[in-house]
Amino acid sequence: MEWPISDLARASGTTTRALRHYGDLGLLQPSRVGPSGYRFYDQDGLLRLQRILLLRDLGLPLATIGEVLAGEQDAERALEVHLDLLKQERERLDRRIRSVTTTLAKRRGGEQMTANESFDGFDHTEYKEEVEQRWGKAAYRDSDAWWRAKSPEEKRAFQDAQLAIAADYGAAKQAGLAAEDDRVQAIAQRHYDWLSGIAGTPQRPQGGPTAEYFAGLGEMYVEDPRFTANYDMHGQGTAKLVRDAMRVYAERHLS
After folding, report:
1. CB-based contacts of 224: which residues, under 8 Å, 6+ apart?
2. Closest Cα to residue 152, out of 101, 125, 112?
3. Is 110 left (phi over 0), alpha (psi -120 to 50) or beta?
4. pLDDT in tens, 208-253
5. Residue 119's pLDDT band (boundaries 50, 70, 90)?
6. First vs last C-alpha separation in the chain
7. pLDDT category, 108, cuts 50, 70, 90?
8. How far is CA 31 from CA 36, 43, 44, 243, in A?
C-alpha cells in the first residue's frame, strides 16, 4: 500500500513542503516518484515519518534525528542530551515569565524597567540552526550582528511590534476571519514590513524579503513548536492562519 504525498501530509498533520524538506535532507525518501514528479510513500515510509515526527516533537534538531535514524548515535544518549536541553529551556522560560511579570507590575506601578529586567530569558540564538539550514550561515550572521547592534530601547520596540502583530492575528482568528480577508492581509502587510527591517533576509531586487522567504517562514510557524508558540498563545490554530495569510500575501504581492 502506498500513500501520495498529499495524503500522507494530511494524515500526519504536517505539510507536503515539510515532507519534501525531509526528503532533501535524506531523512525520508519516497518509495517511488511518479512520471510527473509526484512522490509516494509505502508502509516503511509511514513508520519512518512517525519516528521523525516523534523525535521532532521532543525537540531534537533534524541533524540529530538523521543520526538517530541512521544508527550513528545512540537514541537513549540523544534523548539524555535533549533532556538536559529541556531543563535549560525550562529555566529560560521561567526567567522569561518572571521578566514579563516584572514588566507588568512595573508598568502598572509607573516604574521604569532596566534593560536586564526587560530581556532576561530572551535568546534570539535559539533559532540559529533553522535559519542557517534554510537561508545560509551568512543570513544568520548578518541578522545576529544587526540584533546585537541594537540598543535595549530598539530591541524592546522591535519585540513590542511583533507582539502587537501576533495579538492582531489572534484576534482575527477568534473572529473567524479567513487568510484572504482584507483585514488579515493588512496584518500580513505589517508583518512583512516588520520582517523587512531585519538584516540578512533574502531580498527581492526591488527591496523587501522574497516570496519564498516570507511564505517559508510561515511554514516554520506551523512546523516548529518554538515558532508556533509565538502565535498560538493567542488562540489554538492561530499559527495556521498566520501561515496561510503569509502565503496569500506572497502570492498576491511578491510573485
Report:
1. 130
2. 112
3. left
4. 889 998 998 888 888 877 677 667 654 467 889 999 999 999 999 9
5. very low
6. 38
7. confident
8. 15, 9, 9, 29
Q: What CATH code is assigned to 3-70?
A: 1.10.1660.10
CA distance 190 to 86: 33
Give the residue among 196, 202, 184 at the shortest CA–CA distance from 242. Answer: 184
Q: What is residue 3's three-state secondary structure? A: strand
Contact 132/139 with Cβ under 8 angstroms?
yes
In one-letter notation, the amino acid at residue 177 is L
User: Buried b / exposed e across 22-59, counting CB within 10 Å, b at 16+?
Assistant: bbeeebbebeeeeeeeebbbeeebbebbeebbebbeee
Which amino acid, one-letter code, is at 51? R
Residue 18: all three cell numbers together: 515539510
| Residue 114 phi, psi dihedral angles, 5° rounding | -85, 160
**Nearest to 248, CA basis, from 221, 214, 223:** 214
Residues whose CB is less than 8 angstroms from the CB of residue 65 and which lie 6 or more positions away in sequence, other chains included: 27, 52, 55, 56
Architecture per CATH, domain 126-253, reads as Orthogonal Bundle (1.10)
The string of DSSP codes covering 97-150 is HHHHHHHHHHHHTTPPPPHHHHHTT--GGGGHHHHHHHH-HHHHHHHHHHHHTS
Residue 11: per-residue pLDDT:
87
